[in-house]
Design a protein that fits this description.
Layout (H helix, E strand, L loop, with lengths): L12 H16 L12 H35 L10 E6 L10 E3 L4 E6 L14 E6 L11 E7 L2 E6 L6 E2 L5 E3 L8 E6 L4 E10 L13
Antiparallel strand pairs: 1-10, 2-3, 3-4, 4-9, 5-6, 6-7, 7-8, 9-10
The protein binds FE2/S2 (inorganic) cluster.
Length: 217
């Protein structure tokens, strides 16, 4: 017989073994008990669904943000070259006062150094200096050529639209045809070295004041 008040040192090896076996039985005697730190399968599934949902919306948001950023980057105007921005139009010395207008293909304009003394019907209307005219006809958009030999009402030298016959003076003033207004003008600058730049992004609607828009040089 063993005494339960005996200390392990006082117990025989057999008694100690029995006591250990009894304590083990006690541990498995309540197999339904769940440790306080255990996670149920339901909680585990819920957290996994939350993670997948957050990943989906996060990914979708990043994709949308990236798309909007790319679109804005594409639309932002920078370093515009050619038509729609500043176009180099040559040296001032290349434009003799009173000479015929010169076509600029890249900028889609005609450039002339107008002589206020050219007082004929198709002349300058008193304009003095550089004038850039958009070649696009204000009627339906045909390209308008300068025709130095075209005779209109006994005078030679006009802009004459090939589509419906709108006719303009050297300063772009409409004198005939269905066009609703005179030829449009573009802003001109000349630097200290005589380099001419026409800003094809700055177009003003043509009007009877076209001659006053010439840049005196
Ligand atoms: S497009 Fe020039 S007159 Fe019609």
């Amino acid at each position: 017989m063993t005494n339960e008040t005996q200390t392990p040192a006082q117990q025989s090896p057999t008694d100690a073994w029995r006591a250990a076996l009894a304590s083990r039985k006690t541990e498995v005697a309540n197999p339904g008990a769940v440790p306080a730190t255990a996670i149920s399968p339901v909680d585990h599934d819920a957290s996994r669904r939350s993670f997948i949902r957050a990943s989906f919306w996060g990914g979708l948001g990043m994709t949308l943000l990236g798309s909007v950023g790319l679109l804005l980057d594409y639309l932002y105007p920078r370093n515009v070259k050619g038509f729609g921005g500043p176009v180099a139009a040559g040296k001032l010395s290349e434009f003799k006062k009173g000479a015929d207008p010169v076509a600029n293909i890249e900028g889609q304009f005609w450039l002339a150094n107008l002589d206020p003394g050219e007082s004929r019907a198709g002349g300058t209307g008193g304009a003095d200096g550089l004038l850039a005219l958009w070649r696009k006809c204000p009627h339906l958009g045909c390209s308008v050529p300068w025709k130095s030999t075209f005779d209109f009402q006994g005078d030679k030298g006009w802009y004459r639209c090939p589509c419906h016959g709108s006719t303009y003076t050297k300063a772009g003033i409409r004198v005939f045809g269905p066009a609703p207004r005179s030829m449009d003008t573009m802003k001109i600058t000349v630097d200290g070295s005589g380099n001419i730049t026409v800003d094809t992004g700055k177009i003003a609607k043509g009007g009877p004041d076209n001659p006053t828009r010439a840049l005196k040089v």
